Amino acid sequence: QVQLVESGGGLVQAGGSLRLSCAASVRTFSGYPMGWFRQAPGKEREFVAAISRNGGNTYYTDSVKGRFTISRDNAKNTLYLQMNSLKPEDTAIYYCAARANAPPASFYVTGANYAYWGQGTQVTVSS
Predict the structure, then answer these.
(1) DSSP assignment of 76-114, as one string?
(2) Residue (of 87, 95, 88, 117) closest to 9 by Cα position
(3) What are phi and psi of 90, to 5 degrees?
């Protein structure tokens, strides 16, 4: 069983930065490709960023490219999302997700590919 706990959300002004963390309770964190998703009020959950097991491959949705950076520290069992130049449209609950049984270099952009989810952390960007 994999447990994921997000932290680092909060209220920030437009143009500001936040760093989200996702702590994983799992024996071999390096065995799981990871992803970040978000859900704004009244909208469906959407993909934000993904990273492969070894961290060598990353992928972002177009709206966050150049502003967000996904990374992981396998020694600390932690996934990160550095968010810079935040915009009001980035306001959402942010979730981390994990998938088991994947090749080392693979990453996934669809929520259905992930079996484990955190409870989410709220990010609010004021204009």
Answers:
(1) TTEEEEEE-S--GGG-EEEEEEE--S--TT----SGGG-
(2) 95
(3) -85, -5
Contacts with 101 (C-beta within 8 Å, 6 or more apart), sequence order: none
Read off the tokens for 55.
Answer: 């961290």
pLDDT attached to residue 101: 84
**pLDDT tens digits for range 114-126:** 999 999 999 999 9
As a whole number of angstroms, the distance between CA 58 and CA 108 comes to: 9
How far apart, in whole angstroms, are the C-alpha atoms of residue 38 and residue 40?
Answer: 7
What span, in angstroms and rounded, lies between the C-alpha atoms of 33 and 101?
A: 9
Share of the chain above pLDDT 90, in %: 94
